[in-house]
Design brief:
Length: 212
């Protein structure tokens, strides 16, 4: 599906977003684990993590441009007044209008991003999850409230430390095992965190709970 020219303009303005899915659930990862939130997953990503569990989000043209006002209207129907914007890679898009309208409705704004594009929008919480294939822009490190590094192999610990050196002093640090390697990596993560207590362990608890 080819995005029409008029839709390109609306996408650039942030009036529409290529919506892959939206759903109300429990946050399963990182600092806000266990809290209810409305998830907005946008399509489009050029980071290309080989272990990504939502590869169907990569091609933005597969996901229809959806009016942001409709997305916000759907989100405000739920009692948990927090929205998590994820992807794909949400920072590919202009998110100013989305966050503005969510704020009007008294909804907190959270984003999960690799930080590989300039970050737009008014965010209550930024979860920066850096990827080796497309590292974060320097300006995005200072905006991170939470640094979540996925551990797929032993070399990722060194990658985690390189990123931790660039975030602000109040940023909360997490190491999370890549799901397919969790049994292999978890003992290493536990040992690493015990010896480097600035780090915390993050788990994909939603997968244990069998929820989205």
């Amino acid at each position: 599906m080819e995005i029409k020219q008029d839709n390109k303009s609306l996408l650039e303005q942030g009036i529409e977003l290529p919506l892959m899915e939206e759903f109300y659930t429990i946050q399963g990862e990182g600092f806000h684990t266990g809290k209810p939130a409305y998830f907005i997953r946008v399509g489009g990503c050029d980071v290309g993590c080989h272990w990504c569990d939502v590869k169907e989000s990569w091609d933005a043209t597969l996901h229809p441009p959806t009016n942001v006002d409709l997305i916000v209207a759907n989100a405000k129907n739920y009692p948990g007044k927090a929205v998590v914007v994820t992807g794909g890679e949400p920072s590919m898009y202009n998110l100013e209008y989305l966050t503005q309208q969510l704020k009007v409705e008294g909804i907190q704004t959270f984003i999960e991003t690799s930080g590989s594009f300039p970050l737009t929008g008014n965010w209550d919480w930024v979860c920066l999850s850096p990827k080796k294939t497309s590292p974060p822009l320097t300006d995005n490190f200072s905006k991170a409230n939470e640094l979540k590094v996925i551990i797929h192999n032993k070399s990722d610990f060194e990658w985690a430390e390189k990123n931790a050196m660039q975030v602000n002093s109040s940023c909360i640090l997490f190491l999370q095992p890549e799901w397919s390697k969790a049994k292999e990596m978890m003992p290493l993560i536990v040992d690493y965190v015990m010896n480097n207590p600035k780090w915390n362990v993050s788990l994909q608890t939603h997968k244990y709970m069998n929820i989205p």
